Amino acid sequence: MLWGLHPHGPGTAALTAAGSLWGPARFPSRLGCLGMTRRLVVRSVAGADSPQSSPKSGRYRDTVLLPQTNFPMKLLGHQQSDMELEIQQKCGFSELYSWQRERKVKTEFCLHDGPPYANGDPHVGHALNKILKDIVNRFHMMRGSKVHFVPGWDCHGLPIETKVLSELGVNTQTLSAMEIREKARSFAQAAIEKQKSAFARWGVMADWSNCYYTFDPKYEAKQLRVFQQMYEKGLVYRSYKPVYWSPSSRTALAEAELEYNPEHVSRSVYVRFPLLKPPPTLESLTGASSPVSALVWTTQPWTVPANQAICYMPEAKYAVVKCSASGNFYILAEDKISPVASALETTFDVTATFSGVDLEGGTCSHPLIPDKVSPLLPATHVTMAKGTGLVHTAPAHGMEDYSVASQHSLPMDCLVDEEGMFTSAAGPELQNKAVLTEGTDVVIKMLQATKNLLKEESIVHSYPCDWRTKKPVLIRASKQWFVNIMDIKATAKESLKTVKFIPGAALNSMMDMLDRRPYWCISRQRVWGVPIPVFHHKTKDEYLINRCVLLSPSLLALSVSL
């Protein structure tokens, strides 16, 4: 039986029975989408009068009853978009948010919208983000909650400035800061209108009449007040530290602004640092007739000119080995003897072993700079995962290196400028050469000339890149503004434990990030953004910042007009 009907035979008999049972079916105009009343008519499929049917092939066709509708089988061309728009307008999609806000309910669900960048046309990524949020909002609305969802846009930052400058197609050095800001604002406003129109067109339920924009003067003023509160609590400070630096964008970047290229190719080198003064406990193991060198490995040869020390793991075992090919003596970790010998395509004969703490007090000669001394220092960041167990340390180009230098008062001079070029302080051979390309090549040739290069090889590994230009970044020390994470770490961790993360592993990532980074760089060397409310001296390295300046109405007005 079909739909509770007894078969009275094929053809009109069955239709008559169906019509007598169902009668004229009507749908409410509101739920009928187009606001019109429709009659449901039941018809048979491929009736007996069809000229193509034969007695055998149409034997059962008249027993299949389907509703008859005026809806077309498919819509062609622009008909589909026109029909969707008509449905949205007549069914009141745009009124749904205000309607549900007026309901008298006891619970309210608030979804905070992480804003998209106002840097281009809407795309499938926007659709995925907004529609998933809309599903969550509608789910809670259908469960009886009042939904609060205010959409917004991130209108500042590198993504927008980069897009504007690329579209202008001019040398950025020829544009003033005010010109760039004006063009960036106009570009962001146009992008917002495009995206907002698309989001509403997709039927996303939101408070579209009350959106927030980060370039709104009131929004910027609140940001400056928060900065003032953080500064007064000692959470904001200026310091000279190594930060991620993008030569392609000429600005500092936060860790969240990095993308990692797993197929990046670097030129790694094995370099020897001749032992200048052996540690007191190893003097008997290293005679004047057999000079010994500390053996290090690095994937960034361009940082060797900035070397200030060699670090070791105090609790690890180290060895003095003799190379069977050259007869030279080297110091390296005992666990790394076999893999390093294999990499250098030679064999090592162990002459002595000792604990890492026995290296204390020793010094080495710099492989490139005559008369420069590189001390042997203990460090907690040294591992045996890769390399030789001895780590080349350049404080201006490494976070852990900087920490070691701070503990032992080592120089932290940076030999690289904002464009990623060696400065004059690096010497005439390296000056004005890009450190990641030509500069690396020159450093390797200099190591060969001093006979301190044991081997060079290419290595494929994961390397950080600028999230917008997709080009490699480097770690470079410079004066920046930071947020002190250490003072709020404990409170932040306790707060995170009260949050439900989906998936749960995301909580571990947040905790690891807090443990890994004691500070957060918040300054950028760009012009499209909320300026840090600080006055710098024109010629001296001095700045003015206090409560009066931070809360000055004229400063707030100046900042929001930039």
Give a verbal description of the structure.
The chain has 562 residues and is of the alpha+beta class. The chain has 14 helices and 22 strands. It has helices at 12-22, 79-91, 96-101, 124-142, 158-168, 177-201, 217-232, 337-343, 399-408, 438-449, 489-497, 505-516, 547-550, 553-561, and strands at 41-44, 65-68, 108-110, 146-148, 152-153, 212-213, 236-246, 251-253, 258-277, 292-298, 309-312, 317-323, 329-333, 348-355, 363-365, 373-378, 391-393, 453-466, 474-484, 519-521, 535-536, 543-544. The strands form 6 sheets. Strands 9, 10, 11, 12, 13, 14, 15, 16, 17 and 18 form a 10-stranded mixed beta sheet that branches. Strands 8-7-19-20 form a 4-stranded antiparallel beta sheet. Strands 1-2 form a two-stranded antiparallel ribbon. α5 (158-168) crosses α6 (177-201). The termini are far apart. The model is unreliable at 1-51 and 556-562 (pLDDT under 50). Residues 99-545 form the Aminoacyl-tRNA synthetase class Ia domain. It holds the Pfam family tRNA-synt_1. It comes from Rattus norvegicus. Its EC number is 6.1.1.5. One of its GO terms (biological process) is isoleucyl-tRNA aminoacylation.
